[in-house]
Amino acid sequence: SNLRALPVGRDTRVEIHKGKNAMKNMWRQALFTKQESILVSGRETFERLEKIFAYFGDNMIKQIGKKKLTERVIVPAGTKITFKSEKYSKCRYLPPHYPLLSPFSVIENKVVFLIMDEPLTAVTIENREFARTFKCYFEILWGLAKPSSIDKYSG
What we know:
Elements: E1 3-9, E2 12-18, H1 20-31, E3 37-40, H2 43-52, H3 54-67, E4 71-76, E5 89-94, E6 104-107, E7 110-115, E8 121-126, H4 128-144
Parallel strand pairs: 3-4, 4-5
Antiparallel strand pairs: 1-2, 2-8, 3-6, 6-7, 7-8
Helix pairs in contact: 1-3
């Protein structure tokens, strides 16, 4: 099965998605939220995901524009980003020496971890306090990251 829901506690739910459904499920969740979505990813991981899900990514950006959803993304400097809504997406860049090999995303009260092995695996943990903690981690990284890519880190 591509989905396993594990009962963890009264206020916590864990789901595991494998294969292409892993990323599609994360993006679907982002499309149905009313809150900003955030993502932290490494360069190779981000570029690989964009190639794997090229068609789905284009459609997602169109939906983000239609629904006026906001997203913020943090990646290492030098990462090529092709799926981005100019109006609703903000991206910042960390110095290249931060590898960020395992991406995570926070969507409302869910934290999604992507494991880039074959098959691609997404572990979703739904818990309000856990999500708040990872939003804080994101804000710390956002404060360290620069609004434009590699030239901010030379010199």
